[in-house]
Every structure is written in C-alpha cells, then in structure tokens.
Amino acid sequence: MKVLIVGSGGREHAIAWKVAKSAKVDKIYCAPGNAGIAEFAECVPIGAMEFDKMAAFAKEHQVDLTVIGMDDPLVGGIVDVFEKEGLRVFGPRKNAAILEGSKAFSKDLMKKYKIPTAGYETFDTPEAALLYLETAEMPIVLKADGLALGKGVLICNTREEAKEGVKTLMLDKQFGSAGDRIVVEEFMTGREVSVLSFVDGDTIRIMTSAQDHKRAKNGDQGLNTGGMGTFSPSPFYTEEVDEFCRKYVYQATVDAMKAEGRPFKGIIFFGLMLTEKGPKVLEYNARFGDPETQVVLPRMKNDIVEVFEACVDGTLDQIQLEFEDNAAVCVVLASEGYPEHYEKGYPISGFENFKDHDGYYVFHAGTKFDDEGRIVTNGGRVLGVTAKGENLKLARENAYRATEWIEFGNKYMRDDIGKAIDELIVE
C-alpha cells in the first residue's frame, strides 16, 4: 500500500512511525511533514489546508489510504473532498468533525442525549456573556467555540478575571473567529484523563488512557500550551471509570452522532474529568491528541493500518485492540519562551543516541532541515522524547534520562511530567 499522512507535528511523526511498521505498507508520503518524518516518508510541500492540491497528489500517486492528523483540515472538510474524488481517507467528514469544530454543538449534543458534562451557557455577544457573569458562580470556565490550537480555554477564579476573559476572547479576538461565540461552563474539579478511540460510524474501540500536562511551567503554572508532556496509562482511569464511560459516554456519543445524521468515522478523543459525582466529558476532539499519541501508539500492538481500514470499511467490530502491559512517558522539549515569543533555527544534536535503545523514541514536532542539511528547531514545541518502562515511575525515569541525549540552543522542558504519580507507584 501507499499511505499519505496529512500534518507536520509530533502526532503525525508518531502516526508515520507506526504506519511504517505495518506489513501492508511499502510507501509513505507526508504533507507537509517535518525533518523527523522524513526518515519514514517522502515529505511533500503541500499545505494541510490545500485540499484540492492534496487530493490531486493522492490521485496522481495512486495513494491507497490518506490519514488526516490535524484538526483544521478535518473541520474544514478535507475528507469530503477526498471522498468526492473516490479516494479512501481516514477521518470524519465535515458534518461529523463539528464535534470538535464547535464546542457549542458538542455541549448541545451532550445535553440532548444526556451524556454527562458540566453545566453551561452559550453566548454570541459579549454583552450577553457579561450580563450572565454578573450572577454566575465562580470560578468559571470560558471556552472559544471554534478551534484555537488547544489554547482557547480560560479558567477564571474571579468575576473580574471572567469579564477580562470575555474581552480577550470576544473583543480582542486573541483566537480570531474561534471566539465569535463562547461557551461559559461550570468549573469542575477532579483528575483529567484523555481517552482516544477508533470509530467506524457504529462501533467504537477504546485505546489505553493517557494524561496531558497543558501548562507551560512546572507545577501546572504558566500559560496554556498544546501540551508539555504526557503519560500512559492513567492510574486514575480505573475499571469502574471505564465501565461507566462505556455505558454512558463512549457508545452514547457514537449513537448520538449517528442519530443526528452525522455518522462519525475516525478518532474520537474524549477529554474526561473524574469528578466526585462521576466522570464527565470536558471536551471532544475529532483526531489523535498531541502529545497523547506519542505515548499511546508505542504501547499499541495492532497493525494500525488494519485498524484504519476497518474504520473506513465499517468492520471495526472485527478488531480487538491490544496494548502492552507497561507504561510510557513523553516529555516535550520546547523552545524557551513558548507559547509566546521564541527563536527558531538552532541546530539539534543527539538523535543517534536513540538508535541503540529499544523502547526510546524521539518524535519531531517543530523541526526542519536548514540550507546545510542540518536538523534545526522550527517551532515552539520542538521534540517529544518518549520512553517506555515496566511502570510509570520507571518510564518517567527513562524519558528524562533520554532528554539529556538531545541538545539545542534554547532547549526548555518541564521537569515534573508525571511527577505527581510517582507516589502512587509501589515498587
């Protein structure tokens, strides 16, 4: 098979790495790709939002399956364009990708089908939102309705912060048109857990759990980012939680989308909050998480291309997912100053150290080749260093050891990814 992967981040590198292990595949393309993905794939200079150009490439090169990694093209309707051209593609159509594309839509869906989530109100004008906040209970959460690179969520502890948040989202347009409409949501407390799943329109297959660290600085301080590191599995995702979510959340979401005439094929990412009153859905994403993918796929035993094809063909009920009985931790190496201002173009060294160590991986998120052919930094999140171990504590030790193998000019990372779980691990 020939497979085309659409995207350029650490998630797409992890997908490309996993696809390269498939016995069914002998050629991988990635558009636009990055310096790490180039090890497995032929990188093609087509932007992720250039749908017609992308489909024309897939036709010309007789691509058997295209895998969409990113949210923007999915919400924009790239799958519809590919299907119209008779091309096989993995991902939800535009009318299903709205599950991530509009927080107001997903909240209304959960309310209608009684899927547990936080109480909320939706506002199209700043005046209406500000009026509501005059009497709302604090703390409170403000969410941009549209896509905002995983950063359009503001947790406001006071009324003043909440009013300032409305200004940031709706008037200052910090996240552009994503903030034209906002969701104002009840603040929930508890442990956050991420659960990825494969869906074929009817059947859902749950992957192993993971947990992300969103804040830029140690101790969950600083600004929201796309994610500074992850671990898998989450010790808080118990059998009881799994049983509840299978009954009231996972299949219920798939059935709700089908009932709405929006059958979902692809990945549903469930962001869960484990509250005192039970698990509730924080958010849905319509694609693999980043950097959750970097800890989930290395633990997955299945041939991922077989699973992709089962989702496309509606035969996922014939697949059982299998995961290794171990743990994985990913530490993101970022550019100092991320997620605000940072410099790019620093040469990176140390990749060769990963060749001789089984269970250690380095996934490129923001890298490129410079004019001299060197791999240099090209983004805020530069690399995801992932390592496996018998348990989370050992996986964490291995991941941090591996971060020392990599050097570049303004290297920055959190040193507490998964630290809070160390005390839960019994030797």
TrEMBL record:
SUPFAM superfamilies from the UniProt entry: Glutathione synthetase ATP-binding domain-like, PreATP-grasp domain, Rudiment single hybrid motif
Lineage: Bacteria, Bacillati, Bacillota, Clostridia, Lachnospirales
Protein name in the entry: Phosphoribosylamine--glycine ligase
Keywords attached to this entry: ATP-binding, Ligase, Manganese, Metal-binding, Nucleotide-binding, Purine biosynthesis
Source superkingdom: Bacteria
Pathway the protein acts in: Purine metabolism; IMP biosynthesis via de novo pathway; N(1)-(5-phospho-D-ribosyl)glycinamide from 5-phospho-alpha-D-ribose 1-diphosphate: step 2/2
Cofactor annotation: Mn(2+); Mg(2+)
Family indicated by similarity: Belongs to the GARS family.
One MF annotation (Gene Ontology) recorded for this entry: ATP binding
Top EC class, one word: ligase
One biological process term in Gene Ontology: 'de novo' IMP biosynthetic process
Source organism (scientific name): Hungatella effluvii
EC annotation from Swiss-Prot or TrEMBL: 6.3.4.13
Gene: purD
Domain (ATP-grasp): residue spans on this chain: 107-313
